[in-house]
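input
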Amino acid sequence: MKKKLFSLLVLFVAAVSSAWATDAVPAYNLSVEASKHGTGTVKFFVNSKEVTGANEGDMVTMTVTPDEGWWVDAFGVKAEYYGNWETAGSRRVPAASDNMDIKTTVDLKYERKTLEGVAIYTFKMPANNVRVTGAYKKLSTLYFNPADKTDLMLVNTSTYGDVNLEDGKTVKIEKVEEILEGAEIKLKAQPGYKFKWVVVKNTSSSQP
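output
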């Protein structure tokens, strides 16, 4: 009887240990530093489950979703850890007084960007807390004054190539949407016309 009770106790302890191991808190934190330019949401996943931490060697999938009016600068996103204040099992954010001279970049693998503009990355979790910084570019709209658009033949942007302003001389484009911040814009006049001046206005929502 004692032997049977002992066996049951061993099985119970094993079951509890297994459950504890499954629900154990990951050794290292995953955190997001606010971007100094642009806004969005960064999430982390391990085995398709959203997490805020991971263990060394875990394969982490990270998604970066831009807020409305912004676009993810896919190769500007960074992930780093500070090697001189992290210790095994540490789950704290470094204080301002901490010496953080040793900063190491995590090797992010850019996977793809969805049709909705969500950038997806993967990386192998190091034996340290990881901090991610998103990178974003502003989306803008280029408007044309209807009274002047007959002087224009096409617009060229470094992100979208040529955008024709006429289609069979019946449909004329009055605006080009979702031009990325930093894009080079070239305007080409209709044959026989030349620009008298070009005015660029900073506007967030209303047409100039």
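quick obs: The CA atoms of residues 42 and 64 lie 5 Å apart.
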